[in-house]
Design a protein that fits this description.
Elements lengths: L10 E3 L2 E3 L4 H14 L3 E6 L1 H9 L1 H9 L2 E4 L2 H9 L10 H15 L2 E6 L4 H12 L4 E6 L8 H11 L3 E5 L4 H13 L3 E4 L3 H6 L7 H5 L3 H8 L4 H4 L1 H25 L1
Parallel strand pairs: 3-4, 3-8, 5-6, 5-7, 7-8
Antiparallel strand pairs: 1-2
Helix pairs in contact: 2-3, 2-13
The protein binds uridine-5'-diphosphate (UDP).
The site of uridine-5'-diphosphate has 14 residues, from helix 9.
Length: 259
């Protein structure tokens, strides 16, 4: 069966919808979105997103309306299992950007890279062009999520007419920015990708594959970016909330069986 015909049910994790997609299925959905042409929003959800959404109503609404919420974060796969469902694999922004670029080199999709520190998007574009010959990167610009800059940035993007816009302003800024300007931008696929350009451009190192395989990327981040500790407190809080929720579900299940 072609990947775009799979439709596994989405999983709800502490109120946030997470779509059950693999990388292949993501590429197939992106192809569908580009063919349809209407603006679509893709979010790369991790436990920090879920905890932010609990107290940030605007962010919660944006995730709810997003066309795809990807499981970027091994904690979500664990949470899904605890809650009795399954997500097929982790789908990260940092890995999706090069995969989309590779596919774009074959299909002709036009890509625009927005965000990160000045020069980083341009460096990322150079790296992707050298890796995936023929890929059309029609714009690379740091910009800023500040409202005053929006008209100029939107102008640049509209003029470049990308099929896919990657936005690297970190969460929740990037996702709120996309939602706010989605209609004006009119890009078929707009995806928040966090630190993806930093990883590709080598500005910040990503955990080695073996650390990722041990599901310890969060620990690597904590050690290499200790200033994130406050944000990473979201992880134990997330785990605790999931465990409580799964216990409630279990008790409700055994109550029903006894009744
Ligand atoms: N960033 C930016 N403008 C801002 C805030 C952040 O361009 O006002 C960029 C920052 O340079 C980095 C990315 O957004 O490239 C955020 O990366 P992070 O790993 O913090 O993302 P998250 O963990 O939120 O996905």
């Amino acid at each position: 069966m072609p990947p775009n015909l799979h439709h596994r049910p989405a999983v709800r994790i502490l109120g946030v919808r997470v779509d059950a997609l693999s990388y292949d299925e993501l590429l197939a959905r992106i192809a569908d979105f580009i063919a349809a042409g209407a603006p679509r929003q893709v979010a790369t959800v991790n436990p920090e997103f879920v905890m932010e959404a609990r107290h940030n109503a605007e962010f919660r609404a944006v995730l709810e309306r997003a066309d795809l919420c990807l499981a970027d974060g091994v904690g979500l796969l664990w949470a899904a299992r605890r809650l009795g469902s399954r997500l097929p694999e982790r789908v990260t922004g940092s890995d999706a950007v090069p995969l989309v670029a590779e596919r774009a080199a074959q299909t002709g999709w036009r890509l625009f890279l927005l965000g990160a520190a000045p020069g980083v998007a341009e460096r990322t574009a150079g790296i992707l062009r050298s890796r995936y010959g023929g890929v059309q990167i029609v714009g690379a610009y740091a910009g800023s999520p500040a409202d005053v800059e929006a008209p100029e940035i939107i102008g640049r993007i509209r003029q470049a007419r990308p099929d896919v816009l990657f936005v690297a302003y970190g969460a929740p800024k990037q996702d709120l920015w996309i939602a706010r300007h989605s209609a004006a931008l009119g890009v078929p696929v707009m995806m928040g990708v966090g630190g993806a350009f930093d990883h590709i451009a080598g500005v910040r190192s990503r955990a080695p594959r073996w650390v990722q395989r041990l599901n310890l990327e969060w620990l690597y981040r904590l050690i290499t970016q200790p200033w994130r500790w406050r944000r990473q407190l979201a992880l134990p809080r997330f785990a605790w909330a999931v465990l409580q929720m799964s216990n409630v579900k279990r008790e409700a299940g055994s109550g029903k069986r006894q009744a």
